[in-house]
Amino acid sequence: MRFLLDPEHRAFAASLDALLTSADTPSVIRGWSRGDHSGGRALWSRIAEAGVFALAVPEEYDGLGARPVELAVAFVELGRHAVPGPLVETVTAAALLTDPALAKRFLPSLAAGGTMVTLAPHEWYALDGDAAAVHLSLTPDGLRLSPGPATPARPSLDPARRLTPLLPGGELLSPTPPTEQALTWARLATAAQALGVGAALLDRTVAYVRQRTQFGVPVGSFQAVKHRLADAKIALEFARPLVFGAALTMSPADVAAAKVTACEAAYATARTALQLHGAIGYTAEYDLSLWLTKARALQGAWGGPDECRDVVLSARA
């Protein structure tokens, strides 16, 4: 079976790519990593104007309805440009806040980009709690609105993914939130984001090996280099139909399989990119690092490989 984007999907992806290219995301990412959120907030508003967050919000709350395929298209581009911020968490919040009273309270502002939401699953650290306006946490007694971050954000493996423990307590929003549904949306968005990260790493590496020379010829002409790049390309191309196929079914098992495959393909591509760039690939000042660290961080976000494989195996038992 072939999963091909239709002309509308391709136009949507192209418009997001143009928007994010003009935003100079590497400088936005570096500012965000230092705790300067001004550039990231401005970009967040432009992403919201493009309708990205509205893709997870019902129409009656100023959204575009649940459109997982379009959301996957958008998150591939967000990953391709390594956009910082609690993007997945904001989309996941839309899937959690389904009670009519909660939806009316939170979702219109979320869809419009006026509210940046972070979410701590199982009382873990929340992503970018110092930037978000709404702090949600999944606790043993349900979904809570946390009073805020407990301490200043601390860096993680990916400097653009700043982690913050949330304060305990707060308003109990729902004792029985639709956790499995929200987790499925989170994993789909993460898988699509990883696919975009992998694509960007591959494109940057191909461009680099074409212009870097050794023994008087581009290193990209060496057979061993071609094989590594071909392996990365194949891994990403195998992951792509799984991601968009999962977006069509929204089956928890399909989405879990897509997340494992896309994240592992992105990480394998990151390792290839690092090796083929040589010493410069290890420098934090070089823009490649912004994608390298994100590829590794996304592997464990919203369920690591073992957890996702367990979901797939349980569905087939």
Structural class: alpha+beta
Secondary structure tally, helices: 11
Strand order of the largest sheet: 1-3-4-6
Distance N terminus to C terminus?
24 Å
Give the proportion of residues in helices.
55-70%
- Number of E-type strands: 8
Q: What is the averaged pLDDT score?
A: 93
Low-confidence regions: none
Global Rg: 19 Å
Can you give keywords for this protein?
11 helices; 317 residues; 8% strand; two-stranded antiparallel ribbon; 4-stranded mixed beta sheet
Q: Could you characterize the architecture of this molecule?
A:
With about 325 residues, the protein is α+β, with helices and mostly antiparallel strands. The protein is about 60% helix and about 10% strand. The chain contains 11 helices and 8 strands. The strands form 3 sheets. A 4-stranded mixed beta sheet has the order 1-3-4-6, with helices on one face. Strands 2-5 form a two-stranded antiparallel sheet. Strand 3 and strand 4 (about 140-145) form a beta hairpin. Helix 1 runs parallel beside helix 4 (about 70-80), helix 4 packs antiparallel against helix 8 and helix 7 (about 180-210) runs parallel beside helix 9. The chain starts with 6 loop residues before the first helix and ends with a helix.
Layout of helices and strands:
Elements: H1 7-22, H2 25-33, H3 38-49, H4 68-80, H5 87-96, H6 100-112, E1 117-120, E2 126-127, E3 134-139, E4 142-145, E5 163-164, E6 171-174, H7 179-211, E7 213-214, E8 217-218, H8 223-249, H9 252-277, H10 288-300, H11 305-315
Parallel strand pairs: 1-3
Antiparallel strand pairs: 2-5, 3-4, 4-6, 7-8
